[in-house]
Specification:
This protein has 287 residues and is an alpha/beta fold. 43% of the residues lie in helices and 18% in strands.
Amino acid sequence: MSDRRSDVAGFGLGLRPTHYADILAGSADGDLRVDWFEIISENYMIGGGKPLRHLMDIRAHYPMVMHGVSLSIGSTAPLDFDYLKDLKNLAARLEPAWISDHLCWTGIAGLNMHDLLPLPFTEEALVHVAERVHAVQAYLDRQILLENTSSYVTYLESAMPEWEFIAELSRRTGCEMLLDVNNVYVNAFNHSFDPLVFLDAIPRDTVRQIHLAGHENHGSHIIDTHDHDVVDAVWDLYAAAVARFGAVATMIERDDHIPPLNDLILELDRARSIQESALAARVGLVA
């Protein structure tokens, strides 16, 4: 398996069609404060048409990464090699810095639930997912990143915490982690654990990318919605993540109630400022 590490770093945004024109205009002006873009892979796994044309126009100016929602790495259904073929073909066209998906399952027996369903954190599940990760990485000829998902239920069968499962999966397979800081916060609230314990348990060299997003707090529970600004508590947790993992490539994820591009760039500037301060404090502690 080839080593596909790249120099993609800094601060990115999720690529959304409503921003295509502004992105291209900003690229021409040279003043768009975005270092890279993340695409939803399934939106472009097609033979041609306007979506691909817009994608490649923007790709000419910016590095990109691919983020999927349909790998279903935790399902007991066989891996979908038709899906993987389309994914690999898109990667050959786009040349992304990396490919990611979610540590979850999305359906079984041909039924796609269109949701990111949680796994039981057991040794049996760990062995099963590790075998599938090895198969996917061999087929794609590259490491993949898996994202920690938000969840609203747990399994009585779980024998280890989420963070231990993720760390061990990475150790067994070489896959890396897309750390969603908002999801850590959401799960810590919903399942009553300390989010700093989660961060401290993840090996420093495992995290390649960070997601930041908004959520809805309903008092008794939090729902991961990606339709609000990042809240202060998640920004604080992001600072703790930077203190542990360093200057990891970071992006804002917004999927609904999408604001103008400039509003998202201002939020991205806040991530820059927080990372800069957290890194300075980290250096001070080391000194």
